[in-house]
Amino acid sequence: MTETAPIIRFEGVSKHYDSFQVLKGIDFAVARGERVVVCGPSGSGKSTLIRCINGLETIGGGTLTVDGIPVTEKTLPKVRARVGMVFQQFNLFPHLTVLDNLTLGPIRARGMPRARAREAAMRYLERVRIAEQADKFPRQLSGGQQQRVAIARSLCMEPEIMLFDEPTSALDPEMISEVLDVMTGLAQTGMTMVVVTHEMGFARKVADRMVFMDHGEIVETAPPEDFFTAPRSQRCRDFLDKIL
Ligand code: ADP
Ligand code: MG
Questions:
Q1: Cα gap 160→69, rounded to integer Å
Q2: Shortest CA distance to 86 belongs to which of 147, 170, 130?
Q3: For residues 119 and 126, what is the distance between their CA atoms, to the nearest angstrom?
Q4: Phi, psi for residue 30 in degrees, rounded to 5
Q5: Ligand 1 atom 15 nearest Cα
Q6: Which residues form the ABC transporter domain (predicted)?
Q7: φ and ψ at 14, to 5 degrees?
Q8: What is the pLDDT tens value at each position of the chain, 244 positions in all?
Q9: CA 24 from centre of chain
């Protein structure tokens, strides 16, 4: 792979759920280090699109590559080693402490010695400013804290790409900014990020490029300054009128 080749590339990707076509010939590439924010109405296919990137959904047609690797059943371990994902519901293991949530993957999947895994985990917990909660259980934390733990847990696997699917949608309003701040910090490290969110303040600040989806298609893609001031399509204008 050359440095300039896209790290994620969709070419004519389609997908059906039975007779319903959820992705309609998606052509889309993300450059290494790029931050892309995906928005669009509910049901437009945003979650499906990003879940394909780490193989949580299989594609029906076309090709999808991550770091040059076609995403297939066979390549899943290689793909998932490169891609971290954070969900709306934090999906922490409830019976494990924060620290054990973070070290499980590195110890089990990577065979990392426990002491080294714990040391690395503490560094990531510090990065999301939650190191003092290391020995607590997820239920003892606020939603915003749990989501920051979920981000730290993903980072422990040292991904090259981070996917976020509406990471602040399940949070009380006062906790949204603490999670967005952590994501902004991550963006500043040069991480490749694909973020589904309706937090347009974050998008304006962090996105290199906006993607607008509707009915299984990418309708529009533009840098935020153009996207927000001069959306080209009526569908996109209607959407922005509703959420801004
Ligand atoms: P978004 O994230 O933009 O809200 P999704 O990707 O979750 O959209 O879903 C797109 C469409 O596909 C929706 O109409 C949804 O009902 C449908 N869909 C999603 N997952 C499934 C599934 N497992 N089976 C059938 N239909 C699904
Ligand atoms: Mg969704």
A1: 13
A2: 147
A3: 11
A4: -120, 130
A5: 43
A6: 8-240
A7: -130, 160
A8: 556 899 999 999 999 999 999 999 999 999 999 999 999 999 999 999 999 999 999 999 999 999 999 999 999 999 999 999 999 999 999 999 999 999 999 999 999 999 999 999 999 999 999 999 999 999 999 999 999 999 999 999 999 999 999 999 999 999 999 999 999 999 999 999 999 999 999 999 999 999 999 999 999 999 999 999 999 999 999 999 999 8
A9: 21
Separation of alpha carbons 234 and 236, rounded Å? 5
- Residue 213 CA: nearest ligand 1 atom is 3
Tell me how far apart the alpha carbons of residues 52 and 57 are, in angstroms, rounded to a whole number. 5
Q: What is the ipTM of this complex?
A: 0.97
- Measured from the Cβ of residue 3, the count of other Cβ atoms closer than 10 Å reads 8
- Residue 48 CA, closest ligand 1 atom number: 6
* Bridge partner residues of 86 (DSSP): 164
Task: Tell me the angle at which helices 98-110 and 114-127 cross, rounded to the nearest 10 degrees.
Answer: 130
Rg (CA), the chain: 18
Residue ranges lining ligand 1, Cβ < 6 Å: 17, 22, 40, 42-48
